[in-house]
Amino acid sequence: MLSYRLLSHFRFTHPNLFSPMFGLITVAWCLSISSAAESIQVQSRLSPKTISLEQSAILKITLFGETQLSKISPPELPAVDSDMWQALSISYLGSSNQYQFSNGKIPVVMTWSYSLKPKKIGIITIPTFKIEYNNEILSTKLHKLQINSSSFNENGVNSYENPFYGGIQQIEANVDRTNPYLNQQVTYTFRYFYTARLPNPDSPDYIAPSFSHFSQKRLNPDSNQTKTINGQQFRMEEIKVALFPLKTGRVIIEPAKLRFPISPGLTDNAPPPELITNSVGLDIQSLPTVGKPVNFNNIIGQYEIRASLDKKSVQLNEAVILTVEVFGYGNFETHPKLQLPVMKQFITHAPEIQYKSEIRQEKIYGNRVYKYVLVPVQLGVTSVPSISYSHFDPMSEQYNEISTAELSLKVLPKSIDVRDIGTSVDITVNTQIKKKMNLIYTASKFFFILLMICGVYFSVKWLQDYKNDKREKQVKTDPLQNAIQAIRRTETFGDLSTIIYNYVGETNDKSAIGWNPEMVKQHLVNRSIPVRLVSALIDILRQCDLEQFAVTDRQATIEHIRIQTQQLLTQIDQHK
Q: Which residue from 575, 546, 572 is spatially nearest to 166, judged by alpha carbons?
């Protein structure tokens, strides 16, 4: 049942939704000569048409045509005893309009927006809303709203249109392959499309799927992308994840979500929208049995291997370093340790393992290095045998066995380099002198490093003081002059709107992050700025939002708006 408070809101609040500019236009119309009867139409749009119990839909009612301002009335809600009130809670979000005064009439487009929050599942019929115009009743069409019990449906509630700014927000998720082999890389891509940024300092919250049954690694997304969808240009942000399946069979990646924060200055009754992608299904293939090597260790990818010794000849019992490097594309985290062939001619110590990875062309590229300490125990020419490495290449769908080349090593007898026992005393003295010289050198080196550190410290401190002084001077400059200088340099509508927000924020000693035109209007009205200046400035902000993606002569349009903005800010600044 609709409460008395909500009925009062729709009855008495709607007529006051018109801006002060509408009032001025109405007075001007009253002084002009009335003309012939006008044509007017009403339309309604429900988006989305399928939601869950915890989500909301937006109903937009639009009135358009040539009409006189005094004849426009807010929509009349369905009767209180309608079944709709038992199934839905309705919250009024506000209205928006576009107009141009001409000869006592205006081509008008006015929109009222409502948030519909379901109370139960099922199909709900949205009855007609009525608008009275010129003693005639205009009605909207009926709508059907599907309510599901879960937070996800296969139709995907993946788009949202802001009722005030007209900005479309849309998401999608997909993979580059749906039938990969076990442990083969699959690239999962989440994309966020939008035509305008929502007026909120906080970014939408991306809620990723759990990616169970996968090993995962985040990839670097491409930046500053645009995409045209159905003839409309969108900005696009991507999140890419490299997935490596850990089990075979059918695997479902659950939907990803994008949750928007509550915008400041809007109603608290409407919950923030939450977009949901479709789930993504994959059929993970088992590795083929034909051609599988005997020593295969479930290594999948594309790899190479090489080996080297740090010396070509050593003395008996003198250590030599064997370096084996495995590199290529794949999931190194699942690789077992490298197995060396049996080498009785060496004492082999446990290896030191180094691993690093990077992203190359949206693939995980790894490099694993094994360093073994080998101590030869036999004289003569010996060798490190070839080291084999078997893996399955999912691109060619074949097993490959790669190996290193055989490495030769010459082992010499151990010799004593003492020429004369009588020189042992001289050797001891020379050793002591060398120790003292090393000590003096170390002290001098330490003093030099300390001197360098002091020099760097005082240089950095001087630079910070210089920047702080410069910043303090900039803070003390006049906000109006800052704004005018910035306006002359700007070349985009987005930068121009940011300059206006910053100027209003500086004059109010507040941060302008997350502001929208309504908040700017509130601040200027509180400062007793004339209504005509406030309305003109708000019109510029809204035009900047619209022009960002409009196909127009941008250079001519922005030049005109820059001049108009400088004049308005100068007049507003005179009233502070």
A: 546
Q: Identify the CA nearest to 175 among candidates 231, 243, 237, 233.
A: 243
- Distance between CA 305 and CA 8 in Å, rounded? 78
**H or E stretch including 445?**
helix 424-475
In a 10 Å sphere around its CB, with 0-12 CB exposed, 13-18 middle and 19+ buried, how is residue 218 labelled?
exposed
Stated pTM of the model: 0.51
3-state helix, strand, coil split of the chain in percent (to 5) is: 30, 35, 35
To 5 degrees, how large is the angle CA 507–CA 511–CA 517? 80
Mean pLDDT of 347-368: 93
Q: CA angle at residue 573 from 568 to 576, to 5 degrees?
A: 140
Q: What does the pLDDT look like over 399-454, one tens digit per residue?
A: 999 999 999 999 999 876 545 444 544 555 567 777 778 888 888 888 889 888 99
Q: Is 396 helix (H, G, I), strand (E, B) or coil?
A: coil
Task: Write out the DSSP string of 463-514.
Answer: HHHHHHHHHHHHHTS-HHHHHHHHHHH--SHHHHHHHHHHHHHHHTTS--TT
* Tokens read off for 57: 């839909």
Distance CA 369, CA 36 (A): 86
CA pair distance 154, 257, nearest whole angstrom: 14
Relative orientation angle of helices 493-507 and 554-573, to the nearest 10 degrees: 10
| 346 sits in which H/E element | strand 346-348
- Residue of 436, 238, 404 lying closest to 305 (CA atoms): 404
Tell me the three state secondary structure of residue 282. Answer: strand
